[in-house]
Specification:
Order of helices and strands: EEEEHEEEHHEEEEHHHHHH
Strand order of the largest sheet: 1-2-3-4-6-5
Number of helices: 9
Shape: globular
Structural class: alpha+beta
Radius of gyration: 19 Å
Length: 267
């Protein structure tokens, strides 16, 4: 089925394509009968249907103010579809396009993300793709975590990856780069990368070569945030450093432990 504005999939009329990812496209769509606007994720490749259903199953069990809500999973027109909450606003990447943030604002934005990930960890789920494009801030200031396409339920046997390393390269932990099983501490690493990005405007590990990038990551070779911006306080450097230790056992044990370490409440 050709997807275009005004096309109908199940009970939804497509409005506009608002994103494209590894598994398919995301459309703003409206329910034909109740009028609710949703983000409709439409699977591109039927070979990925098991992973798509895995995403829906994981997200359907989550209820948290900082996690986008899943409404429905269905198949229509030869496409598997996930209807989820449409979160208005900007991604963290959009916010950072105007420049890095001061440390207090960076932590204020990061705190709800850490709360959401702590909730996931408490429920035996790791996200595995935390990044600035997967978090939105609404005009009212609500922060919402999106996209559970490669999330993993640690209580179940996982889907295989066919030898590929799932996730966004710049946010991968050393154990993921080395092909070892990720756990909650891998998400802690990605949260450290995200905090670094909020503080400096850039991710800590960068290279045009994947091999060189992965070498940097496995060695945890990066410049401290305060060397990039002189106004970054020592406590922010220390938080990033604890998250970005190459040995998982040297990091915060999970997002809950990181949450306890954040300097909150802020003045």
């Amino acid at each position: 089925m050709d997807l275009h504005p005004d096309a109908i999939l199940g009970d939804y009329r497509l409005d506009a394509c608002v994103g494209r990812g590894g598994m398919g496209t995301v459309w703003r769509a409206r329910h034909l009968r109740i009028g609710r606007t949703v983000a409709l994720k439409v699977l591109r490749d039927s070979d990925l249907s098991a992973r798509f259903l895995n995403e829906a199953r994981i997200q359907a069990g989550l209820r948290h103010p900082h996690v986008a809500t899943l409404f429905d999973y269905f198949e229509a027109g030869g496409h598997a579809c996930i209807a989820m909450e449409f979160v208005e606003g900007e991604t963290f990447a959009d916010v950072l396009s105007r420049g890095p943030l001061d440390a207090d604002r960076a932590v204020r934005l990061l705190q709800p993300v850490v709360e959401a990930v702590a909730y996931l960890h408490d429920h035996g789920v790791i996200h595995r793709d935390l990044k600035s494009h997967n978090v939105k801030v609404t005009p009212q200031g609500r922060v919402a975590l999106l996209d559970f396409g490669i999330a993993k339920d640690l209580n179940l046997k996982g889907l295989t990856t066919g030898g590929a390393v799932p996730g966004t390269p710049e946010y991968l932990s050393p154990e993921q780069v080395l092909g070892r099983p990720p756990d909650a501490r891998s998400d802690v690493w990605a949260l450290g990368v995200l905090l670094y990005e909020l503080l400096t405007g850039d991710v800590p590990f960068q290279s045009p070569s994947t091999f060189s990038l992965f070498e940097q990551i496995t060695r945890a070779e990066y410049a401290a945030p305060s060397t990039r911006r002189r106004d970054v306080p020592a406590w922010a450097d220390a938080l990033v450093a604890r998250c970005l230790r190459p040995a998982p056992g040297d990091r915060f044990a999970d997002a809950g432990a990181l949450l306890d370490a954040l300097p909150l409440p802020l003045a």
